[in-house]
Automatic annotation (TrEMBL):
UniProt entry keywords in alphabetical sequence: Chromatin regulator, Metal-binding, Nucleus, Zinc, Zinc-finger
Major localisation: nucleus
Function: Component of an histone acetyltransferase complex.
Protein name: Inhibitor of growth protein
MF-aspect GO terms: zinc ion binding
Keyword Zinc-finger included in the entry's annotation: yes
């Protein structure tokens, strides 16, 4: 329920409260007036009772004593009625206070539920965006790997057809490119020194972009996933499943 609904509902329940309170207070004031009037009569009869005691008029003295007792009983009845009205008035107000507390608790619970649902929806939306981003990165890595393999094949084909016509400088360049493609461990910095797009994703333990031949770790929870042949000591793709050094150590510990 909305805040306006709670407020309107509660104000409707308070519509008759002022009238009921006014009625109870008027009744209590009327009881007070009656009791005070009787107390004046009691004072008058008490004075007469004392006068009759001095005169030793036993009959009148007893009559006044009985009348005083009756008046005190009447005052006590008025007092009891006034106490009952006070209790009734207190319970009437307390009932509305408890209802207000209950409505406030329900309203706060609804606000908390909405906040939790909103946070959960934001988390799910964020997780979905991360999943899509990760999927795009995987697709980009696959495209990068395929492009590197195509370039590697094209380079080898040109090397075969060039033969004796190629000069010594061209042969040296082809050999250097061949070493990068094979992921030579000795000097990978020759390729890493080339200008790189800052937006290009990085891989491998060297934290560099995709180049040459790369291999993917078969551990689905691997944090890096793709590695350069040279950085992990490979020259050819191994048979069967392959795990990176970190995942291999973790599997041995288990």
């Amino acid at each position: 329920m909305t805040t306006a609904f709670y407020l309107e509902h509660y104000l409707d329940s308070l519509e008759h409260l002022p009238t009921e309170l006014r009625r109870n207070f008027n009744l209590m004031r009327d009881l007070d007036t009656r009791a005070q009037s009787i107390m004046k009569d009691i004072d008058k009869y008490a004075d007469e009772y004392l006068r009759y005691v001095k005169n030793e008029d036993e009959e009148k003295r007893m009559a006044h004593l009985e009348r005083i007792e009756n008046l005190y009983s009447k005052v006590k009845e008025y007092g009891d009625d006034k106490v009952q009205l006070a209790i009734q008035t207190y319970e009437l107000v307390d009932k509305h206070i408890r209802r207000l507390d209950s409505d406030l608790m329900r309203f706060e619970a609804e606000i908390q539920d909405k906040a939790i649902n909103s946070n959960r929806a934001q988390e799910e939306s964020g997780a979905s965006k991360k999943g899509r981003k990760k999927l795009k990165e995987k697709e980009k890595r696959k495209k990068g790997t395929a492009s590197s393999e195509d370039e590697s094949k094209s380079g080898r084909k040109k090397k075969k057809t060039g033969g004796a016509v190629a000069s010594t400088a061209i042969a040296s360049t082809v050999n250097s490119a061949s070493k990068v493609e094979l992921g030579a461990i000795n000097n990978p910095a020759d390729v890493l020194d080339m200008p790189v797009d800052p937006n290009e994703p990085t891989y491998c333990i060297c934290n560099q972009v995709s180049f040459g031949e790369m291999i993917g770790c078969d551990n689905p929870d691997c944090g890096i996933e793709w590695f350069h042949f040279g950085c992990v000591g490979l020259t050819v793709k191994p048979k069967g499943k392959w795990y990176c050094p970190k995942c291999s150590q973790d599997r041995k510990k288990k």
